[in-house]
Design a protein that fits this description.
By secondary structure, the protein is an alpha/beta fold. The chain contains 15 helices and 26 strands. Strands 1, 2, 5, 6, 8, 9, 10 and 11 form an eight-stranded mixed β-sheet that branches. Bound molecules: S-adenosylmethionine (SAM). The site of S-adenosylmethionine (SAM) has 23 residues, from strand 20.
Length: 520
């Protein structure tokens, strides 16, 4: 990795005691905390927040123990696997028990204010632990670390180490600095870093589905969003390394990969570096596009399902839709965040498309991939949003008939265009009421979507036990709907045809059949 600038903070308040073997506890609070709407519970489900990452290590015995806890979006969870890989190569083993950790790293999220508050609250839990064990190293990684930099060390005295999303290769050296009695920080953003050569091992997963980062950063500059500031400029990863990672996963039993990026449709690889530097016609015509990458990964095996997230309406072209339509193992599911149904709000958000353009993209999806499930992200109460504009969001939701939605109240983020140019003028109670109306609408649409699927037979990839009973397995169909069915003698990682005979508002319930062809 290029030059690394480390700020070693003198006069560290915490000293490492050489006689203790400090365990590494990684709590990972990074990217955007996605609030998943759960139709069953009529609430926002944040199931994976705070999950510990455990990975295989060749070391045992006296190795230092790392507790790695992740917050935020899926990219952050994927980053935590990279972090754990890097540290396990240095002799760490991961632990799910924070009390036995020598090092705690929190991979943080900065997308909304409450994501950061949650990290600060979580740090309180470690105060007593740190008092009892002064040798315990506590580090903050990810987007909040990148946004606040040295300020975090000043504000949160128990934190020893800060590393931004492009500085994870430097973690062993940062930890050594803390071992040496200093505080350590590296928040440099990179022009090239994609961690392409780091092969994350995913022992904490179900062994069936995995995530592959295909790019880093974002060039879109949506006015509400902190991501370009915390994750840097957009760069795409070498497609060969992506295909190799998918192949390795398939060979070790995985049957589904999700390709991850802030804006996957904007993926373009012409030898590395920043996207904005791919300028010449020749470079562009020789580059690998997202639709080409999708097909390359799909060709790893027809038995490997391919999903991707997140798409952006301003960049999603028809060639991606045709790639999905002509490859059965590329799933019929697109997450296409709209944020608002009002052209005026979209303009203020700097989203680069109007309501009409978004609707045209939806029509293209429905024409080229009939039966494609569509989900979205929505923000309630953006600066200046009128009641009429909010209603346009509700009417657009109904027009699209979203299968699923992630819904958020607007949260002003320091340094963003919106914070500099607009007033956060929608009263909290108005934001809450608008969000509730959006959630209510989505409840209705999600229930309709599940009911429409009921009665069909789907090809389902078995992921593991159902949440409610070990006598049932759960899996998803191509459209990403959860199906639950008696487990009989099947195994996770196998595909089965499930006739869906019943449903809850969020789940299809059925049984495995052998005499019916699946619709997908
Ligand atoms: N890159 C994707 C895009 O632009 O569509 C996803 C970006 S973000 C990591 C995930 C979601 O968080 C966004 O789509 C948006 O709905 C939400 N979000 C981002 N910034 C926000 C803010 N300041 N307040 C509320 N929600 C926000």
């Amino acid at each position: 990795m290029g030059k690394v600038k480390n700020y070693i903070l003198k006069h560290a308040s915490v000293r490492f005691n050489d006689n203790l073997s400090p365990a590494l506890l990684i709590v990972n609070f990074t990217a955007p905390m996605e609030m998943k709407f759960d139709q069953n519970k009529n609430m926002l489900d944040e199931e994976r927040q705070g999950e510990a990452t455990l990975i295989k290590s060749n070391y045992s015995g006296n190795s230092r123990k790392l507790y790695l806890e992740s917050y935020g979006c899926q990219m952050n969870f994927s980053d935590s696997e990279i972090v754990a890989s890097i540290l396990c190569d240095e002799g760490f083993t991961t632990t799910a028990n924070q009390l036995e950790a020598d090092v705690v790293l929190l991979n943080t999220c900065a997308i909304r204010e409450n994501a950061e508050s949650r990290v600060r609250q979580r740090l309180q839990d470690f105060k007593k632990e740190k008092k009892n064990r002064p040798g315990l190293i506590i580090g903050l990684l990810g987007c909040m670390a990148e946004r606040l930099k040295e300020k975090l060390l000043e504000e949160e005295k128990l934190v020893d180490l800060i590393a931004g999303p492009d500085a994870y290769r430097d973690l062993p050296s940062l930890i050594s600095q803390v071992d040496g009695g200093q505080k350590a920080i590296n928040v440099l953003l990179s022009r090239e870093e994609t961690y392409a050569d780091i092969n994350p091992v995913r022992l904490d997963s179900n062994g069936v589905v995995a995530y592959i980062s295909i790019m880093r950063g974002c060039d879109n500059m949506c006015s509400f969003c902190v991501v370009p500031f915390t994750r840097g400029r957009e760069r795409s990863r070498d497609p060969e390394s992506i295909v190799k990672e998918a192949t390795d996963l398939f060979n070790s039993g995985y049957r589904e990969v999700t390709l991850l990026g802030q804006n996957v449709d904007s993926y373009i690889y012409a030898g590395g570096g920043l996207k904005k530097e791919i300028l010449t016609y020749e470079q562009k015509s020789n580059a690998t596009s997202f639709s080409e990458l999708l097909v390359m990964v799909a060709k790893v095996s027809p038995e490997l399902r391919v999903r991707f997230s997140t798409s952006n309406p301003r960049d999603m072209t028809d060639d991606v839709l045709h790639a999905i339509a002509s490859n059965q193992n590329i799933c019929n599911y697109i997450h296409l965040p709209v944020q608002s149904g009002s052209t005026n709000v979209l303009k203020n958000m700097n989203r680069g498309y109007s309501r009409g353009v978004y609707m045209d993209r939806i029509k293209a999806i429905q024409t080229i991939i009939p039966d494609c499930a569509i989900s979205t992200d929505l923000i309630a109460g953006f600066c200046g949003e009128t009641e009429e504009e909010h209603k346009e969001t509700l009417s657009l939701m109904e027009w699209v008939g979203y299968d699923f939605a992630y819904t958020f109240k607007y949260s002003e983020r320091p340094g963003t265009q919106a914070q500099r140019n607009y007033k956060d003028d929608i009263l909290p109670e108005v934001k809450s009421r608008r969000l509730a109306e959006i959630i209510k609408m989505q409840q209705k649409l999600s229930a309709l979507s599940i009911k429409k699927m009921k009665g069909n037979t789907y090809r389902v990839l078995i992921e593991g036990f159902s949440k409610k009973s070990d006598d049932y397995f759960r899996g998803r169909n191509s459209q990403n709907a959860v199906c639950v069915f008696p487990k009989e003698d099947y195994k996770p990682g196998e595909y089965v045809n499930v006739l869906t005979e019943d449903c809850t508002p969020a789940t299809l319930i059925g049984r495995v059949v052998h005499d019916q062809q699946p619709v997908y």
